[in-house]
Every structure is written in structure tokens, then in C-alpha cells.
Design a protein that fits this description.
Blueprint lengths: L1 H19 L17 H15 L1 H6 E11 L5 E10 L17 E10 L2 E7 L3 E2 L11 H6 L3
Antiparallel strand pairs: 1-2, 2-3, 3-4, 4-5
Length: 146
């Protein structure tokens, strides 16, 4: 009798869950259930470089993905790309005489929750602020996780 009651209870629960469309998610960790993924963030990073990075937009070509790194911050990844520019320098160099010196660049882009929060070219130039002074690196970014 005891087993029949348990069987009926389990059957009732299964039927209820099925009829209501409920599902139980047995995955652990927030990242597995998040709309923020490493792949979608890579697309955000690549599009940002193509359409917003002053150095690439000015005269960059041949953008190539190199690697990605998961960061300690939640939903944050660093992506590294390389590209060539028709002349040396950084940012929008409009009005300056191009030197014609083909230059290879490496850009590191941090994406957190589908937003670019850091973009540094050659460890020298901040593509977000167009500054070449004090550059905030990935380590410092991780210390200020939001």
C-alpha cells in the first residue's frame, strides 16, 4: 500500500509538470543559464573593432581572431585580435600625412555582459578613450569587477 501511494504521488507530479509546461533545470552555475556567452561576446568584440575602434576604422584591414580568455568577472571575456594598418599610429589620424608604413597591431577587447568595457591596442593605446597615456590593463580591470 505504501509503495502504491509513492508511485501515485510520483506519477501525479510528473503529470502536473508535463501539463503545466514546467521544466526543471539541473545545470549548475550562472554562466550555463545566461544569455551572455563567450561566443556571443566574441561577436560583440569583433563588431566593435570593425565599426568603432578608431585605429581599425581609419585604415585597418585583415582583422583576425587570435584567442580568448575567461576573466574572473562574471560574464566577462578578453578577446585578442590582430590586424594591419596602412600607416603607423593610432586612432583617427585624419588630417595627418600618412607615412605609408604598413603596421601590424594587436588589440585586446574585454566584453562584459555584451558591452565592450576595455579595448587596448598594442598595450599602448586605449581605443575607448583615444588616450595613449596611462593604460588600464586586464589585471586592473579584474580588480574592479562589477
Amino acid at each position: 500500500m505504501k509503495y502504491k501511494f509513492q508511485y501515485l504521488l510520483v506519477l501525479l507530479i510528473v503529470i502536473t509538470v508535463t501539463l503545466t509546461g514546467c521544466s526543471i533545470n539541473f545545470t549548475s552555475g550562472n554562466k550555463a543559464n545566461s544569455k551572455y556567452t563567450q561566443d556571443s561576446s566574441r561577436i560583440v568584440a569583433e563588431n566593435w573593432v570593425k565599426y568603432n575602434s578608431p585605429t581599425f576604422v581609419f585604415d585597418g584591414t585583415d582583422l583576425q581572431f587570435m584567442q580568448s580568455t575567461s576573466l574572473r568577472c562574471q560574464y566577462a571575456w578578453m578577446y585578442e585580435f590582430k590586424f594591419s594598418a596602412a600607416s603607423s599610429g593610432y586612432g583617427n589620424r585624419k588630417g595627418k600625412s600618412p607615412d605609408g608604413q604598413k603596421t601590424n597591431h594587436t588589440i585586446q577587447v574585454v566584453v562584459q555582459k555584451d558591452k565592450v568595457t576595455m579595448a587596448i591596442s598594442d598595450d599602448q593605446y586605449d581605443e575607448l578613450t583615444s588616450n595613449s597615456g596611462e593604460i588600464i590593463g586586464v589585471d586592473q580591470f579584474e580588480r574592479t569587477c562589477q
